[in-house]
Amino acid sequence: MEEKIYIYYTNDLHSNFQQWPRVARFLKDKKRTREAYGDAFFLMDIGDHMDRVHPISEAFKGKANVALLNKLEYDFVTIGNNEGITLSHEELFQLYDEASFEVICANLHSLRGENPAWLHPIGIKETKSGIRIGVIGLTAPFNDYYELLDWHVSPIYSTLDRHIHNLKNCSDIVVLMSHLGLSEDEEIARRYPEIDVIIGGHTHHLLRTGEEIQQTIITAAGKHCFHVGEVILTWSHSEKKLVKKEAYATDITNYEKDMDTKETLREMEKKADGLLEETVAELEKPLEKDWFRDTLLMQELTHTLRKWTRADCAMLNAGLLLDSLPAGKVTYKDVHRVCPHPINPVIVELTGNELVEVIRVSLTKEFMEFPLKGFGFRGEMLGKMMFSGINVETGRHRNGEPYVKNVIQENGELINGNKRYFVATADTFTFGRMLPEVAKSEVKQYFLPEFIRDLLADTLKHKFSKQL
Hints:
One of its GO terms (molecular function) is nucleotide binding. The chain is of the alpha/beta class. The protein has helices at 20-37, 55-60, 63-71, 81-85, 89-95, 143-146, 156-169, 182-191, 259-275, 296-309, 332-338, 352-362, 365-368, 436-440, 452-464, and strands at 2-10, 40-45, 76-77, 102-104, 108-110, 119-120, 122-126, 132-139, 151-153, 173-179, 197-200, 206-213, 216-221, 227-236, 241-251, 279-283, 313-317, 328-331, 345-351, 385-388, 390-396, 402-409, 420-426, 444-446. The chain is built from 15 helices and 24 strands.
């Protein structure tokens, strides 16, 4: 006799709540079908369900996301970096207090001596026929961030070594919920044949029909839940083993929306508006955003960053500000709308020559118009770089390309090519290849849990506001 077990999963929603009612309808339909046939099924989320880019997640600090998962009766959830490093220690410690699902993350630990009661390294559920499903979760080890928040993420492979043998012994089927990225998932599949299924996320890869490596099937459903994942496992009761593994990602872009979920989100948004209505500043004049020209607000924000971090100089890209601010009252909701990115301040150490090269790259058309996606940036393009603590003199080659003539410090001295400087900027540039010198810097000091928008609020309050 053979039995099919179904796993439905989501990953990397990033608070794209426009799509969530479709997810809800799809999962409710699948649940009805499985119940009608008497099939065993489980619901899982692989992390980054929350993203503070959305006012609901910002206002409720992720607890609204937990409520949405509760309503659909998820079984297992692991955490992504957006849950893990965009909240304060206390906010993450309490995030899943009301969860009706199991939170599984084997490599996350509090550095304050006690883990939250909801945090478990593994979980096991049994089907009605007695098949035991063992689940382990892992999240990406961004310890430069986590440790500033009094958390630690243990290395991936030592964590698996510690748990996988016992999990295999007490389970018939082993599933890894991995918020690690595709390349790590593939390497884990090669090293750990005990794992039957790896459900992935983090790098937003879409595997429409899964990928098989040795005895393991790997799957993932992209980003923003335009797809929902399904794993179908066929168990032979006579042979007492899995005889077939299938994985699919279904496009639900045009799926009908669940009206109850839409109403829940409307109510959440209304409450979020109330929570974010606190006045930050009262502006006498409007403040314009411009991605390609100097603006007063962007300049003052860059000054604030330098002074707040006590760096030698600072630089911020104008694309961080998504909208202008009219004269009158500015609320925290306005600040969030204008600067929604979960981006932290950072100081990096650069030589003078490296700093000049970074400035040169930032002046190019390619840099300013680059439509960055990810690394915390939630805007449209990077925009012009603004500077504080230095004055940049530029010229243009005959072909129109800009070049740096001089970089002069506030004291009138030229930047020394061999001297080392502490440069404050957005942590976005410590990832990827946009500014290689910044990303490769061996000295980085991140500031958490503050976002750039917290400095924007301070700038509006202290530099532009009327006396309230």
